[in-house]
Design brief:
The protein is of the alpha/beta class. Helices cover 25% and strands 9% of the residues. Strands 2-4-5-6-7-8-9 form a seven-stranded mixed β-sheet. Strands 1-3 form a two-stranded parallel sheet.
């Protein structure tokens, strides 16, 4: 009996062919393909994928890939998703000089040194090594300090695991991490943590009593006068219209449309 969820021929895996790429993209020439979504196809061999020289966006997640050799020729590649595969190295990506976003969550990357090959990618800003929602990670993420080590190894990154590390908004994520660390119970013996203190002074959130202001009172009075003046004008306009209708009467109706 075959394992649950495994299809006939899946054990051998699938190899990318020229016909497959043309069918998925709708293009007649591999060089013309800009975007490819090859998710969850049971791929084990990238085949002729390296011939898609114009490729900019590539999704290979949910396959059984163990190496990315053919991707070394994709110099225009900007976005790559290889999450949930069996990768133990990323060396071919060192040649993808335009790479900006990389998702490698759910692979077999064991040490930060396996990310050293990405150090030369000046445009790389987004890197995902773990995805808690999808329950995907890498062995290197088991270390509590992996996040800091990756940041030091790749200082050009702006976002790691969907958390901004530099630029606008990074202070918020840093504050969240500091709060998480402060809330974790300490395993070392010693005095208990001091009682949390309020962030603001007592009475900060209480509403202030209204203050009398001559300027505010004068502004309110002028506003009320303006409203009353508008009402008077409206009443005068209504009276003028009523008088005009009486003067025209039934006899003037026929000629009222003559200009």
């Amino acid at each position: 009996m075959e394992p649950q969820g495994e299809k006939p021929g899946e054990a051998e895996g699938v190899r990318i062919t020229s016909q497959m790429l043309k069918s998925c993209s709708g293009e007649f020439a591999l060089e013309s393909i800009l975007l490819l979504k090859l998710r969850g196809l049971g791929l084990v061999d990238l085949g002729c994928l390296g011939e898609c020289l114009g490729l900019e966006w590539l999704d290979l997640s949910g396959n059984a890939l163990t190496q990315l050799g053919p991707l070394a020729s994709l110099r225009q590649l900007a976005v790559l998703n290889v999450a949930n595969n069996r990768l133990t190295g990323l060396e071919p990506l060192a040649a993808c000089e335009n790479l900006q976003s990389l998702n490698v969550a759910g692979n077999l990357l064991a040490t930060p040194s396996q990310l050293q090959c990405l150090a030369g990618l000046r445009g790389l800003e987004y890197l995902r090594l773990r995805d808690p929602l999808a329950r995907l990670s890498n062995p290197l993420c088991a270390s509590p300090s992996y996040w800091t080590v990756v940041r030091e190894l790749l200082p050009g990154l702006k976002v790691i695991d969907s958390e901004r590390v530099t630029g606008r908004g990074s202070e918020f994520y840093q504050l969240c991490r500091d709060l998480d660390c402060s809330l974790q119970p300490s395993s070392s013996p010693g005095p208990s943590t001091s009682e949390a203190q309020p962030w603001v002074e007592p009475g900060y959130w209480e509403s202030w009593p209204p203050r009398s202001s001559s300027i505010l009172e004068e502004a309110c009075r002028q506003f009320q006068d303006s409203v009353q003046e508008c009402r008077d004008l409206d009443r005068q306009a209504a009276d003028s219209l009523a008088q005009a209708e009486q003067l025209l009467g039934p006899a003037g109706t026929a000629s009222s449309f003559v200009f």
